[in-house]
Amino acid sequence: MVVSNGDRGEIGTVADVLRKRAPLLELLADGPRNQRDLRDELGVSRSTVYKSLQELTEADLVTERAGGYVLTGFGRLAWQRHDEYVARLHRLDTGRRVIETLPEDRQFPPSLFERGRIVVPGRHAPERPFDRLSEAGSRADRLRIVSPSGMPRLLADLHENVEADEQNATVVLEADAVSRLRSAYDRFAAAAAADGLELRRIDGELAFAVVLFDDEEIGLFGYDTGVLIGAVFAEDDDALAWGERVFDRSLERSVEV
């Protein structure tokens, strides 16, 4: 039995066993199993099941009782944490392309990707991130946006909602993006003058876009040489606090259009 006093080696052994014997642990998490049940459900040999149970017992993750083998209290908690950790890694891997567009010298809350919803363009759905943006935006009373891209479709929607007195928004854009919007949106002057819609310009380049939907949700958009790679949306306090800091710093550096 592994009796840990916090030694990294012993903890490492437990972590290795959790990873190595994950399929068996997943079965035991649902309830007691005897060796035959485990052998049949996993489709492995008797010796493999025996060796696996021996390793798990020595690590104090599993014990034998009248109904079969069960997770110990420590084993159940350790497995839950391990399962959550693997799930977070999978989510990070799903968002890898978006993560790689972000500046290496900037700190991002891990919870943004670990708990958020990753949305990337598809071969037959290139507008998917913008569709998700429109969906989330339609539910918000207030939008705060800082972006390297003008997003003409978004500005048109915002302008319409503001004129209908359904929404207000503050939008901070790169100077080049403002210029493109002037050309692309034929009601730009009316939008800039509309009460409830504040358009602002910032000098320099913005590495990514942040959209805050009320005080409840954040969207982060990653770009590569001006092309949208994907987005992540999260309702997480740490991610929201980070997004508000990003927006506030950009707002302070901006001027009204």
Automatic annotation (TrEMBL):
<protein>
    <submittedName>
        <fullName>MarR family transcriptional regulator</fullName>
    </submittedName>
</protein>
<dbReference type="InterPro" id="IPR036388">
    <property type="entry name" value="WH-like_DNA-bd_sf"/>
</dbReference>
<dbReference type="Pfam" id="PF25213">
    <property type="entry name" value="HVO_A0261_N"/>
</dbReference>
<dbReference type="InterPro" id="IPR036390">
    <property type="entry name" value="WH_DNA-bd_sf"/>
</dbReference>
<dbReference type="Pfam" id="PF08350">
    <property type="entry name" value="FilR1_middle"/>
</dbReference>
<dbReference type="InterPro" id="IPR013561">
    <property type="entry name" value="FilR1_middle_dom"/>
</dbReference>
<feature type="domain" description="HVO-A0261-like N-terminal">
    <location>
        <begin position="19"/>
        <end position="91"/>
    </location>
</feature>
<dbReference type="InterPro" id="IPR011991">
    <property type="entry name" value="ArsR-like_HTH"/>
</dbReference>
<feature type="domain" description="Methanogenesis regulatory protein FilR1 middle">
    <location>
        <begin position="126"/>
        <end position="252"/>
    </location>
</feature>
<dbReference type="InterPro" id="IPR057527">
    <property type="entry name" value="HVO_A0261-like_N"/>
</dbReference>
